[in-house]
Design a protein that fits this description.
Largest sheet: 4 strands, mixed
Helix content: 40-55%
Order of helices and strands: EEHEEEEHHHHHH
Number of strands: 6
Radius of gyration: 22 Å
Strand order of the largest sheet: 2-1-6-5
Structural class: alpha+beta
């Protein structure tokens, strides 16, 4: 892991601590807020996994030491004042001791006007229709019908995208791609495939250059 000069200029508080915001490398979801001191920051860098200072137990806390939910560090970035950190991680399990993926799951306020769409939010909504079926829900209907029906819909929506694209109709193509994306996500949930699984695959294969190379080889 590369260590920069910035790490030497960090500002710890009167208790020798610095807040560390931990986020998922793939989804960018905020997972937790913890604290580090100079020792645990050094251990985090040396071991490549998050190591915090437990303020309640007053001891070093290696995340996942007992639960197995280790967080492997991708990067550590300080803010403009160098008194707070963002730690980008690849996690092996839930970040929260409650079993939740993130410690932040209690909504306090959401603006209906400004709230943003996220793939994670849509995934969670669709997944909820499978785990907690809702009468009259089209999504629940698809899960009830099973894999064959879901695959049929993915095929139909793929055809609609091709038709719209062949006409060079931008608005219709956007509409049909959105339909396809939704049905593909239903398929993902049916097969237990996460957004993280897809992100990892795309990140691994460097998709643009790889596809060009494939076409040239054919």
């Amino acid at each position: 892991m590369e260590i920069t000069e910035n790490s030497k200029a960090l500002k710890f508080d009167a208790n020798g601590l610095i807040p560390a915001i931990v986020q998922d490398h793939y989804t960018k979801e905020v997972l937790t807020l913890a604290y580090m001191n100079a020792e645990t920051l050094a251990l985090t860098i040396a071991e490549g996994r998050t190591v915090f200072w437990s303020r309640s137990r007053r001891e070093i806390w290696r995340k996942g030491e007992t639960s197995g939910n280790v967080q492997r560090v991708v990067s550590i970035t300080a803010d403009c004042d160098k008194d707070a950190l963002v730690i980008d991680v690849v996690k092996s399990g839930p970040a929260c001791h409650t079993g939740a993926e993130s410690c932040f799951f209690n909504p306090v306020y959401v603006s209906d006007e400004l709230k943003q769409f996220t793939w994670q939010g849509l995934y969670a909504l669709i997944e909820g229709r499978k785990t907690d079926p809702k009468e009259g829900s089209y999504t629940t209907y698809l899960f009830d019908k099973g894999l064959e029906k879901i695959l049929k819909k993915v095929g139909e929506e793929s055809t609609e995208v091709i038709i719209a694209g062949s006409k060079r109709d931008r608005e219709e193509t956007i509409y049909e791609i959105s339909d396809l994306a939704y049905h593909v996500m239903v398929l993902m949930i049916e097969l237990g495939i996460s957004i993280e699984d897809i992100t990892k695959e795309l990140e691994k294969r460097h998709v643009i250059d790889h596809k060009v190379k494939q076409e040239r080889m054919q």
